[in-house]
Amino acid sequence: MDRLAGQISASHGRLHPAAEPFARHMIEVGDGHSLYVEECGNPEGRPVLVLHGGPGGGCSPFMRRFFDPAHYRVVLFDQRGCGRSRPTAAVHANTTPHLIADIALIRDHLDIPRWLLFGGSWGATLALAYAQAHPDHVTGLILRGVFLGTQAELDWFYGGGAARFFPDLWAQFQEPIPQAERHDMIGAYHRRLFDSDLGRQARFAQPWLMWENALAGLQSSAVSHAPAEYARAFARLENHYFTHGCFLQEGQLLRDRHRIQHLPAVIVQGRYDMVCPPASAHALAQDWKDCDLRLVPASGHALSEPRITAELVTVMDMIRDDDRNRDRSRTPAR
How far apart are CA 151 and CA 246, in angstroms? Predict the structure, then answer.
């Protein structure tokens, strides 16, 4: 889950300067899908893979700014069916195992032995799933707004839990759905987002997206409209994944955590995250010796929340400084 990434001033978030990619790729991954991939920063720097949220959110230039471009080789890509990847809003051959295989293919294509994973919301889910499948190719994880892909989390957000705090916005989300179908909002929206009428798909994509966007930031207010193509891709992909339990076994990411417990991790979690409440981040961090859980006060879910932004930049700068100190210690004194 994720919202449209908003712009935030560098004075609040201490973001790094905007940097244009030094390379862009369109990579054929099979099944008729082509993925947009870009590389930013230092071609010889420490590799870090950015995993966007949603599913279906796509990457934005804002996401490049969490990394010192002199130190990091930043790889961003739009997952199947969204952003600049093609075909847009396509759900065929679009599952979590497909995305894990795509990441493995991108790593091979770019000749990167191991990389750091940076993902928020659904991006955190995918980072965990990929790391557990390929732990030898991962140097660590930086996660935000943890979503473990469980039924309890989906029930919270689409079954009335979050609605207790936002009854007015929940009413707007329910309004297009007949009363008899409101016991299963994911299913009700699924029937409309996958209708053969593209216009009907587009009409129901907007309220699906707006429900999440309105709750993503602590100070957020409801947004009346989003670009039609973005909304359709986001809503269809997210609904497709949630209809199928994120293509994960129930509890899989906690069950298989032992596969990555030797890796360092930092979790940046908004204390008042209404989309992905802190219980999941807390459960993930329990007994993980090298996991640093940072509960950020007065913050919600969105990447663009000022304190969330600042904490993530701080973490990435800390890793950069540790790398530089290690390099200095290995340099023989003259």
Answer: 9
Please give the average per-residue pLDDT across 164-191, as a whole number: 98
What is the mean pLDDT of the segment spanning 102-122?
98
- pLDDT tens-place string over residues 298-330: 999 999 999 999 999 999 999 999 999 998 887
Catalytic residue among 60, 121, 220, 304: 121
Catalytic residue, chosen from 85, 273, 280, 304, is 273
Q: Tell me if 267 sits within 8 A of 242, measured CB to CB.
A: no
User: Domain segments of the chain: what residues?
Assistant: 10-151+249-330, 153-245
- 10-151+249-330: CATH architecture: 3-Layer(aba) Sandwich (3.40)
CA–CA dist 25, 29 (Å, integer): 12
Please tell me the predicted confidence (pLDDT) of residue 333: 56
273 classed as catalytic = yes
Task: Kindly report the average pLDDT of the chain as a whole number.
Answer: 94
Q: 111: which residues sit within 8 A by CB, 6+ positions away?
A: none
